[in-house]
Write a structure and sequence with these properties.
Blueprint: E1 6-12, H1 20-29, E2 41-49, E3 54-62
Parallel strand pairs: 1-3
Antiparallel strand pairs: 2-3
Keywords: GTP-binding, Nucleotide-binding
Protein name: Di-Ras2
GO molecular function: GTP binding; GTPase activity
Length: 73
């Protein structure tokens, strides 16, 4: 019997303009964005194999802006 999928939530935090979105897009889509487009919040899903098990990652790409200080706690 195949094992049940395992879901994980991943949040990416950091200052604005450091490459959080570029890192996430490289992992999820295999592309790299070199231009800076500020992110409010985006969510991506990626299915991977982890220890011979199917894992689903829900990746939240957060803002680096000081407009949302609660996100930095």
């Amino acid at each position: 019997m195949p094992e049940q999928p395992t879901d994980y939530r991943v949040a990416v935090f950091g200052s604005g303009g450091v490459g959080k979105t570029s890192l996430v897009l490289r992992f999820v889509r295999g592309t790299f964005r070199e231009t800076y487009i500020p992110t409010i919040e985006d969510t991506y899903r990626q299915v991977i194999s982890c220890n011979r098990q199917v894992c689903t990652l829900q990746i939240t790409d957060t803002t680096g802006s000081h407009q949302f200080p609660a996100m930095q706690r």
